Amino acid sequence: MRLLRNVQIAVLLVLTAVLAGCATTGGVQDATGNLGVEKRDSPGKIYVEMGIAYMRDGQDAVALQKLRRSLEVDEQNPEAHNVIAILYERLGEEALAARHFDRAANLDPRDPYIRNARGSFFCKQSRYEMAEQEFSLALENPLYPTPWVALTNAGLCAERAGDSVMAETYYRRALTANSRFSPALFQMAELSFEQQKDMSARAYLERYHGEVAGTAASLWLGVRIEQRLGDRHKAVEYKRRLLKEFPDAPEIQALNQSEKQ
Questions:
Q1: Exposed, middle or buried, 187 (CB in 10 Å: 0-12/13-18/19+)?
Q2: What is the pLDDT of residue 5?
Q3: Could you tell me the pTM of the whole model?
Q4: Which domains does the chain have, with CATH numbers?
């Protein structure tokens, strides 16, 4: 069973502004939540944006300072709670992450970005049923502009839970929603390879490389796919690129071990 990869981090950090307020129709709250109402500008918004930027640059200490400041300015901002929860999760502060995820969900229960991030958090804790509930809640919002993100995270979680059939279902749904979404393409390539569907694995991997530059993981997968398909030329080319572009990657050790067998 494969573990969640760095691709999941990239998926989780697809962050957009969380809208505050309450969407209602005739006194009954609809499924769109705050995505369907006019945005309330939070005085802490600038600090949230700065926090996200510093997180993307790997400057977690500065990011934490900015996000803490955002909550000092506006404790009712669900996006600030969501982003600081993601940061605390990254830092291994699970109790603090859980507290802020809970607060974000209470403030904006229909926000798909919050539900998606919270679902991934539960998955890492092996709380798979709760994770699936969160992903489902994210996908219930008809205004969610990037449902393929939550679908891919749901697939990663199903795979971690040992359910490859459900994982494949989620990945296919993600690619139906966005056929060019590279994380889902890579996961389908890996899953197809594990299922010994080598031609499908090749096709998904080629689509993946058509969208993004090769990684150590994708090039190593390419070596194995082509070796099993008997295409020595393609296998050698993947190997050459892996050795040249990622000489210190863990996949090099796996390559060396495979050649000793």
A1: buried
A2: 52
A3: 0.85
A4: 17-144 (1.25.40.10)
